[in-house]
Amino acid sequence: MRPSQFVASVLLLASATHAWPWGPVDSAAKDLAPMIMGRDDPTSTQSQSSSALSSDSSSSSSSGSASSSGSATGSATTSASGSGSSITGSVKSSSSRQNSTSYDTTKTYDARLPAGGIQMITPAPNGPATYYKIDQPVTFAWNYTSLSATPSAIDILASCSTNAQIYTIASNFTVTNSTQSIVWDTGAFETSASVALLTADYTLIIHDAAKDISATAQAGYLATFNQFTFGMYQPQPVVPFKDFVCVTCSGALSSAERQALTVVFGTAALCVVSFGWFTGVVGLW
Protein backbone atom coordinates (compact mmCIF):
# COMPACT_ATOMS: atom_id res chain seq x y z
CA MET A 1 0.00 0.00 0.00
CA ARG A 2 1.23 3.45 -0.85
CA PRO A 3 1.91 5.98 1.93
CA SER A 4 -0.62 8.37 0.53
CA GLN A 5 -3.26 5.70 0.51
CA PHE A 6 -2.41 4.71 4.10
CA VAL A 7 -2.75 8.28 5.33
CA ALA A 8 -6.05 8.66 3.52
CA SER A 9 -7.32 5.45 5.11
CA VAL A 10 -6.32 6.67 8.56
CA LEU A 11 -8.06 9.97 8.08
CA LEU A 12 -11.19 8.27 6.78
CA LEU A 13 -11.21 5.91 9.75
CA ALA A 14 -10.72 8.78 12.18
CA SER A 15 -13.59 10.72 10.63
CA ALA A 16 -15.86 7.68 10.78
CA THR A 17 -14.87 7.01 14.35
CA HIS A 18 -15.57 10.57 15.36
CA ALA A 19 -18.95 10.51 13.64
CA TRP A 20 -20.08 7.16 15.26
CA PRO A 21 -22.75 7.47 18.04
CA TRP A 22 -20.72 6.08 21.02
CA GLY A 23 -23.28 7.02 23.68
CA PRO A 24 -25.32 3.74 23.64
CA VAL A 25 -22.17 1.74 23.33
CA ASP A 26 -20.76 3.42 26.40
CA SER A 27 -24.00 2.67 28.28
CA ALA A 28 -23.93 -0.95 27.22
CA ALA A 29 -20.28 -1.13 28.13
CA LYS A 30 -21.09 0.33 31.49
CA ASP A 31 -23.84 -2.33 32.00
CA LEU A 32 -21.48 -5.05 30.91
CA ALA A 33 -18.60 -3.77 33.04
CA PRO A 34 -19.81 -5.17 36.36
CA MET A 35 -20.45 -8.52 34.75
CA ILE A 36 -17.01 -8.52 33.19
CA MET A 37 -15.47 -7.37 36.46
CA GLY A 38 -17.53 -9.84 38.39
CA ARG A 39 -16.42 -12.61 36.10
CA ASP A 40 -12.85 -11.71 36.81
CA ASP A 41 -13.47 -11.16 40.59
CA PRO A 42 -13.87 -14.51 42.46
CA THR A 43 -15.15 -12.74 45.58
CA SER A 44 -17.94 -11.20 43.61
CA THR A 45 -18.78 -14.57 42.10
CA GLN A 46 -18.91 -16.14 45.55
CA SER A 47 -21.06 -13.30 46.81
CA GLN A 48 -23.44 -13.67 43.90
CA SER A 49 -23.54 -17.43 44.47
CA SER A 50 -24.29 -16.90 48.16
CA SER A 51 -26.96 -14.42 47.21
CA ALA A 52 -28.46 -16.92 44.80
CA LEU A 53 -28.29 -19.64 47.40
CA SER A 54 -29.87 -17.32 49.97
CA SER A 55 -32.56 -16.46 47.52
CA ASP A 56 -33.14 -20.14 46.74
CA SER A 57 -33.12 -20.97 50.44
CA SER A 58 -35.54 -18.16 51.14
CA SER A 59 -37.79 -19.30 48.38
CA SER A 60 -37.50 -22.93 49.56
CA SER A 61 -38.21 -21.81 53.11
CA SER A 62 -41.14 -19.81 51.93
CA SER A 63 -42.55 -22.72 49.96
CA GLY A 64 -41.80 -25.00 52.94
CA SER A 65 -43.66 -22.64 55.22
CA ALA A 66 -46.54 -22.62 52.84
CA SER A 67 -46.43 -26.40 52.71
CA SER A 68 -46.11 -26.56 56.47
CA SER A 69 -49.01 -24.19 56.82
CA GLY A 70 -51.03 -26.34 54.50
CA SER A 71 -50.14 -29.47 56.43
CA ALA A 72 -50.90 -27.73 59.70
CA THR A 73 -54.29 -26.76 58.40
CA GLY A 74 -54.88 -30.30 57.26
CA SER A 75 -53.81 -31.65 60.64
CA ALA A 76 -56.02 -29.23 62.48
CA THR A 77 -58.97 -30.18 60.35
CA THR A 78 -58.34 -33.89 60.81
CA SER A 79 -57.81 -33.43 64.52
CA ALA A 80 -61.03 -31.47 64.92
CA SER A 81 -63.17 -33.82 62.88
CA GLY A 82 -61.64 -37.26 63.25
CA SER A 83 -59.20 -37.30 66.15
CA GLY A 84 -61.29 -35.29 68.58
CA SER A 85 -62.94 -38.41 69.99
CA SER A 86 -59.60 -40.20 70.08
CA ILE A 87 -58.06 -37.37 72.07
CA THR A 88 -61.01 -37.33 74.40
CA GLY A 89 -60.81 -41.10 74.68
CA SER A 90 -57.13 -40.83 75.43
CA VAL A 91 -57.78 -38.31 78.17
CA LYS A 92 -60.49 -40.52 79.62
CA SER A 93 -58.22 -43.51 79.40
CA SER A 94 -55.47 -41.64 81.19
CA SER A 95 -57.78 -40.43 83.92
CA SER A 96 -59.30 -43.87 84.23
CA ARG A 97 -55.85 -45.32 84.70
CA GLN A 98 -55.27 -42.82 87.47
CA ASN A 99 -58.59 -43.70 89.07
CA SER A 100 -58.01 -47.42 88.69
CA THR A 101 -54.58 -47.19 90.31
CA SER A 102 -55.26 -48.59 93.74
CA TYR A 103 -53.20 -47.54 96.70
CA ASP A 104 -53.39 -49.87 99.67
CA THR A 105 -54.55 -47.52 102.41
CA THR A 106 -56.12 -50.32 104.47
CA LYS A 107 -54.41 -50.57 107.79
CA THR A 108 -53.01 -54.01 108.51
CA TYR A 109 -53.22 -55.43 112.01
CA ASP A 110 -51.23 -58.18 113.65
CA ALA A 111 -52.13 -61.44 111.91
CA ARG A 112 -52.37 -63.10 115.31
CA LEU A 113 -55.42 -61.01 116.14
CA PRO A 114 -58.82 -62.58 115.41
CA ALA A 115 -61.24 -61.15 112.90
CA GLY A 116 -64.09 -59.08 114.29
CA GLY A 117 -67.35 -60.89 114.99
CA ILE A 118 -70.93 -60.51 116.16
CA GLN A 119 -72.61 -61.98 119.21
CA MET A 120 -76.40 -62.10 119.22
CA ILE A 121 -78.30 -60.64 122.16
CA THR A 122 -81.88 -60.78 120.86
CA PRO A 123 -82.98 -63.45 120.29
CA ALA A 124 -80.80 -65.29 122.79
CA PRO A 125 -78.28 -67.39 120.86
CA ASN A 126 -78.54 -70.39 123.18
CA GLY A 127 -82.30 -70.28 123.66
CA PRO A 128 -84.95 -72.41 121.96
CA ALA A 129 -85.59 -72.11 118.27
CA THR A 130 -87.18 -68.76 117.46
CA TYR A 131 -90.18 -68.42 115.12
CA TYR A 132 -91.57 -65.13 113.96
CA LYS A 133 -94.97 -64.42 112.52
CA ILE A 134 -94.81 -62.76 109.12
CA ASP A 135 -96.51 -59.33 109.11
CA GLN A 136 -95.20 -58.70 112.62
CA PRO A 137 -92.08 -56.66 113.62
CA VAL A 138 -88.94 -58.69 114.27
CA THR A 139 -86.19 -57.35 116.56
CA PHE A 140 -82.51 -58.27 116.30
CA ALA A 141 -79.80 -57.01 118.68
CA TRP A 142 -76.11 -57.85 118.81
CA ASN A 143 -72.66 -56.92 120.09
CA TYR A 144 -69.47 -56.41 118.06
CA THR A 145 -66.49 -58.40 119.28
CA SER A 146 -62.71 -58.22 118.60
CA LEU A 147 -63.00 -55.21 116.30
CA SER A 148 -59.81 -53.20 115.75
CA ALA A 149 -61.32 -51.31 112.80
CA THR A 150 -65.03 -50.48 113.04
CA PRO A 151 -66.84 -50.53 109.68
CA SER A 152 -68.64 -47.33 108.77
CA ALA A 153 -71.73 -49.24 107.57
CA ILE A 154 -73.08 -52.79 107.41
CA ASP A 155 -75.64 -54.72 105.38
CA ILE A 156 -78.21 -56.86 107.19
CA LEU A 157 -79.79 -59.69 105.18
CA ALA A 158 -82.02 -62.72 105.62
CA SER A 159 -81.26 -65.73 103.46
CA CYS A 160 -83.89 -68.39 102.70
CA SER A 161 -82.61 -71.69 101.29
CA THR A 162 -86.13 -72.89 100.38
CA ASN A 163 -86.48 -70.45 97.48
CA ALA A 164 -82.76 -69.48 97.24
CA GLN A 165 -83.57 -65.82 97.96
CA ILE A 166 -81.71 -63.19 99.98
CA TYR A 167 -83.94 -60.52 101.52
CA THR A 168 -82.42 -57.13 102.43
CA ILE A 169 -83.39 -56.05 105.91
CA ALA A 170 -81.18 -52.94 105.88
CA SER A 171 -78.51 -51.60 103.52
CA ASN A 172 -75.63 -49.31 104.56
CA PHE A 173 -76.80 -49.39 108.16
CA THR A 174 -74.56 -46.98 110.09
CA VAL A 175 -72.42 -48.45 112.86
CA THR A 176 -72.62 -46.17 115.89
CA ASN A 177 -71.97 -48.24 119.03
CA SER A 178 -70.52 -51.57 120.07
CA THR A 179 -74.12 -52.73 120.66
CA GLN A 180 -76.74 -52.30 117.97
CA SER A 181 -80.28 -53.37 117.20
CA ILE A 182 -82.75 -53.18 114.34
CA VAL A 183 -86.48 -53.76 113.99
CA TRP A 184 -87.56 -55.47 110.77
CA ASP A 185 -91.13 -54.57 109.90
CA THR A 186 -92.04 -57.68 107.91
CA GLY A 187 -95.56 -56.36 107.27
CA ALA A 188 -94.29 -53.26 105.46
CA PHE A 189 -91.66 -55.39 103.78
CA GLU A 190 -94.28 -57.74 102.36
CA THR A 191 -96.19 -54.91 100.69
CA SER A 192 -93.20 -53.92 98.53
CA ALA A 193 -91.26 -57.18 98.24
CA SER A 194 -90.97 -58.66 94.75
CA VAL A 195 -90.64 -62.15 96.29
CA ALA A 196 -92.93 -62.98 99.20
CA LEU A 197 -91.61 -64.33 102.48
CA LEU A 198 -92.21 -68.04 102.93
CA THR A 199 -92.98 -70.23 105.89
CA ALA A 200 -89.43 -71.51 106.24
CA ASP A 201 -86.12 -71.21 108.07
CA TYR A 202 -83.92 -68.15 107.48
CA THR A 203 -80.27 -67.31 108.17
CA LEU A 204 -79.39 -63.85 109.45
CA ILE A 205 -76.39 -62.35 107.59
CA ILE A 206 -74.49 -59.25 108.74
CA HIS A 207 -71.40 -58.07 106.88
CA ASP A 208 -69.30 -54.97 106.15
CA ALA A 209 -71.13 -52.96 103.46
CA ALA A 210 -67.80 -52.11 101.82
CA LYS A 211 -66.95 -55.77 101.27
CA ASP A 212 -68.55 -58.76 99.60
CA ILE A 213 -70.42 -61.37 101.63
CA SER A 214 -67.83 -63.99 100.67
CA ALA A 215 -64.81 -61.74 101.40
CA THR A 216 -62.03 -63.36 103.43
CA ALA A 217 -61.94 -62.10 107.01
CA GLN A 218 -58.89 -60.03 107.96
CA ALA A 219 -57.44 -59.63 111.41
CA GLY A 220 -59.21 -56.82 113.26
CA TYR A 221 -61.89 -56.31 110.59
CA LEU A 222 -65.51 -57.46 110.71
CA ALA A 223 -66.03 -60.93 109.29
CA THR A 224 -69.30 -61.95 107.67
CA PHE A 225 -71.73 -63.24 110.31
CA ASN A 226 -74.09 -66.05 109.22
CA GLN A 227 -74.49 -68.25 112.27
CA PHE A 228 -77.98 -67.41 113.49
CA THR A 229 -81.04 -69.23 112.15
CA PHE A 230 -84.68 -68.34 112.80
CA GLY A 231 -88.04 -69.46 111.48
CA MET A 232 -90.91 -67.48 109.95
CA TYR A 233 -94.47 -68.53 109.19
CA GLN A 234 -97.57 -67.06 107.58
CA PRO A 235 -100.30 -66.35 110.15
CA GLN A 236 -103.64 -68.12 109.65
CA PRO A 237 -107.06 -66.69 110.57
CA VAL A 238 -108.67 -67.93 113.78
CA VAL A 239 -111.10 -70.82 113.08
CA PRO A 240 -113.64 -72.22 115.57
CA PHE A 241 -112.67 -75.68 116.80
CA LYS A 242 -115.73 -77.35 115.29
CA ASP A 243 -114.80 -75.93 111.87
CA PHE A 244 -111.13 -76.75 112.14
CA VAL A 245 -109.82 -79.27 109.65
CA CYS A 246 -106.39 -80.74 110.06
CA VAL A 247 -104.94 -80.91 106.57
CA THR A 248 -102.29 -83.39 107.69
CA CYS A 249 -104.69 -85.65 109.61
CA SER A 250 -106.89 -88.54 108.35
CA GLY A 251 -109.95 -90.08 110.04
CA ALA A 252 -109.49 -93.48 108.36
CA LEU A 253 -106.99 -96.13 109.39
CA SER A 254 -104.70 -97.68 106.88
CA SER A 255 -104.68 -101.44 106.30
CA ALA A 256 -101.39 -101.79 108.13
CA GLU A 257 -102.78 -99.96 111.13
CA ARG A 258 -105.88 -102.19 111.15
CA GLN A 259 -103.76 -105.34 111.02
CA ALA A 260 -101.59 -104.12 113.84
CA LEU A 261 -104.61 -103.41 116.02
CA THR A 262 -106.06 -106.87 115.21
CA VAL A 263 -102.86 -108.56 116.29
CA VAL A 264 -102.70 -106.55 119.52
CA PHE A 265 -106.30 -107.20 120.55
CA GLY A 266 -106.13 -110.87 119.45
CA THR A 267 -103.02 -111.49 121.48
CA ALA A 268 -104.57 -109.85 124.54
CA ALA A 269 -107.73 -111.97 124.24
CA LEU A 270 -105.72 -115.17 123.85
CA CYS A 271 -103.71 -114.37 126.93
CA VAL A 272 -106.84 -113.79 129.04
CA VAL A 273 -108.53 -117.01 127.90
CA SER A 274 -105.39 -119.08 128.40
CA PHE A 275 -104.83 -117.71 131.87
CA GLY A 276 -108.47 -118.41 132.87
CA TRP A 277 -108.30 -121.98 131.64
CA PHE A 278 -105.04 -122.63 133.44
CA THR A 279 -106.33 -121.34 136.78
CA GLY A 280 -109.53 -123.42 136.43
CA VAL A 281 -107.64 -126.65 135.76
CA VAL A 282 -105.25 -126.14 138.62
CA GLY A 283 -108.12 -125.33 140.96
CA LEU A 284 -107.10 -121.79 141.62
CA TRP A 285 -110.35 -120.44 140.27
Automatic annotation (TrEMBL):
Task: Say yes or no: keyword Membrane present.
Answer: yes
Signal peptide from the UniProt entry: 1-19
Q: Which UniProt keywords apply?
A: Membrane, Signal, Transmembrane, Transmembrane helix
Query: Pfam families under this entry?
Result: DUF7137
Residues covered by region (Disordered): 35-108
| UniProt key word Repressor | no
Q: What segments bear the compositional bias annotation Polar residues?
A: 97-108
Q: Where is the DUF7137 domain?
A: 113-248
Transmembrane ranges?
Answer: 260-284
Q: Where is the composition biased (Low complexity)?
A: 43-96
Q: What is this protein called?
A: DUF7137 domain-containing protein
Name the source organism: Acrodontium crateriforme
